[in-house]
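Q: what sequence does this backbone want?
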């Protein structure tokens, strides 16, 4: 489903802002950052701003003691997961909306992929204390994150910007946004408790 949505969004973006087929690694994109359709740019900006604001408020409330205590704050996997996913939200939005192809974009893109892979791997260990294997439906995003990360890196290296953009959108709008919304909306989860408790 997410791949279908990302394919549709990528086609819309490509149709709205057609890029010459001769673009290669040396000419990675328009460079203006306007390689997404205006509608998709608004969606990315809204997601990045809203989730960054919610995460910041929740973190400040939780760590300052304003929000109720949540026992998950002591679980190492959750600490690693939260510490890597929180900066990935605004950074992913910035990468999608900013100028593409330069050294800064490539460097911060590597950082973002590292954050996404680390947060996905940490998610595998959430709730695993006590011996019994615990699999959560939200962990379906772990293989999606790992596969999309691999594809976006290999696509960028071979100069396939269309595939690269599609996989970044899958990661940002799928593997980052959907679990993030669940974390904020589902009662009992740490971010929900810290934001609304």
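A:
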């Amino acid at each position: 489903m997410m791949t279908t949505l990302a394919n549709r969004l990528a086609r819309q973006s490509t149709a709205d802002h057609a890029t010459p087929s001769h673009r290669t690694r040396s000419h990675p994109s328009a460079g203006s950052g306007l390689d997404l359709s205006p509608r998709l740019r608004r969606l990315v900006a809204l997601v990045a701003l809203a989730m960054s604001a919610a995460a910041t408020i929740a973190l400040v409330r939780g760590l300052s003691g304003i929000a109720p205590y949540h026992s998950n704050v002591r679980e190492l996997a959750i600490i690693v997961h939260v510490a890597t996913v929180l900066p990935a939200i605004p950074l992913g939005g910035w990468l999608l909306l900013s100028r593409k192809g330069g050294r800064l974009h490539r460097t911060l893109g590597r950082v973002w992929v590292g954050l996404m892979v680390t947060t996905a791997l940490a998610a595998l260990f959430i709730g695993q204390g006590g011996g019994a294997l615990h699999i959560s439906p939200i962990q379906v995003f772990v293989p999606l994150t790992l596969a999309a990360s691999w594809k976006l890196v290999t696509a960028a290296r071979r100069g396939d910007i269309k595939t690269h953009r599609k996989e970044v959108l899958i990661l940002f709008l799928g593997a980052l946004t959907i679990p993030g919304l669940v974390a904020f909306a589902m009662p009992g989860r740490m971010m929900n408790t810290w934001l609304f408790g």
